[in-house]
Amino acid sequence: MNELFRIILSLVIVIGFVLINSLVLVWLERKVSARIQLRRGPLYVGWFGLLQTFADALKMLGKELIFPKNCDKVLYFLAPILSFAPVLGAFLVIPFGQHLVIQDLNIGLLLVFAFSGLSFIGIFMAGWASNNKYSLLGGMRSVAQNISYEIPLLLSSLNIVMMAKSFRLSDIVRAQAHVPFILLQPLAFIIFITSALAESNRTPFDIPEAESELVAGFHTEYSGLRFGIFFISEYTYVFISSCVATALFLGGSHGPFLSGWAWFLMKAYFVVFVVMWVRWTLPRLRSDQLITFAWKVLIPLSLFNIICTALALQLLKQ
Amino acid sequence: MMEYASLLIVFAFAAFVAGLLIFLTSILGPRRKSEVKEQPFECGFDPITLPRGRFGVKFYLVAMLFIIFDVELVFLFPWAVVFKKLGAMGLLEMIAFLGIVVVGLVYAWKKGALEWE
């Protein structure tokens, strides 16, 4: 009973964190993009425009919810919920500090990937149910892209599992007490970050929601906070990917002077910043280039990397 | 067991919160239905073709390749955890397995399954 109470309490904290965090991330993205394009970004609402996204969210709350004609009502209703719930589930296993983890499961890493796989079912449902050809095309592309990049993502994290000998994320962090894995596995880190960018549908991989050709893709027909929930889950997914990259490659909560959770959050937000930087620097790729890049470059590279890691570990042991 | 029961709690809770947010919007937002508003968006004019018509067969090919590679990944996962205990023999066997996977990828590549025209 005590355990149940602890889980529910931590869930309430996580929900609050997710909602506020995604609003702050949207603000940060607007500020970063403004800096890169020599603008100033949101400025007037609150301190440095910090409250701008809160005001936007409040405005969204007062908008009309539309059911488009001939849409699949049940799927249309369920899609935003189904894309939001799994992203939240991934918070369960992320070790924010030495003992700061809600459920330290022994298959933590697998669970994160399973949940991220579930969330694009929600995206495809949205594309299908909207009764709009742009949405359907966006949903199709989203699934093709996500399943293509899922393989290099898993293969590159497999190197880390081989070195740490565990799927438990806190074990992986503990294995990096002296040397973070990014120094030992630079190629795996690059493959991981590239695939994570593609998995979270961010530029240069934002084909599913390419504004200029698909008019926002799978969420064209969504309005009000239904659209807002897609937005929240996208930004939270970026944050989760950054957290996983931090735990796998950047040494997690290890660092001098400051306490563990401060180091973890600093590293995670730095990765988020890099993701935004990439978005506002690189142009969008074409759909076919994107999928052939996954199959012809990333997958052979990551298979090669796994064999190299296995050989190196085996030779070092002897 | 309790560890995995918490997954269900997370799912129910997250769905509840998302549902609550949508419910709040439906209370606070206006409700003015109109014919034009409910039409599927297509840059202003009437929809020309039905949205749930044909689409590229390449999407099926990518999905099939994905299933094959994902099953192979499932074999790699348990190996990665215990591979230091298995020693040189385990390594050789996995290199042979990966070799077969690579031959399959090269075959699909040469057959043109990865080309999008």
Can you describe this structure in just a few lines?
The complex is a heterodimer of chains A (318) and B (117). Chain A is mostly helical.
Q: Helices, strands, pairings?
A:
The complex is a heterodimer of chains A (318) and B (117).
Chain A: H1 2-36, H2 52-61, H3 73-89, H4 108-129, H5 133-164, H6 169-174, H7 181-184, H8 186-199, H9 211-214, H10 224-248, H11 260-281, H12 287-317
Helix pairs in contact in A: 1-2, 1-10, 1-11, 3-4, 3-10, 4-5, 5-8, 5-12, 8-12, 10-11
Chain B: H1 2-28, H2 35-38, H3 58-111
Q: In CATH terms, what is the architecture of chain B?
A: Up-down Bundle
Indicate the CATH topology of chain B: Methane Monooxygenase Hydroxylase, Chain G, domain 1
Question: How many strands appear in the DSSP assignment of chain A?
Answer: 0
How would you state the average pLDDT of chain A, rounded? 82
Radius of gyration of chain B: 25 Å
Low-confidence stretches of chain B: none
What fraction of the residues of chain A are assigned to beta strands by DSSP?
under 5%
* Helix coverage percent of chain A: 55-70%
Low-confidence stretches of chain A: none
Structural class of chain B: mainly alpha
Total helical segments of chain A: 12
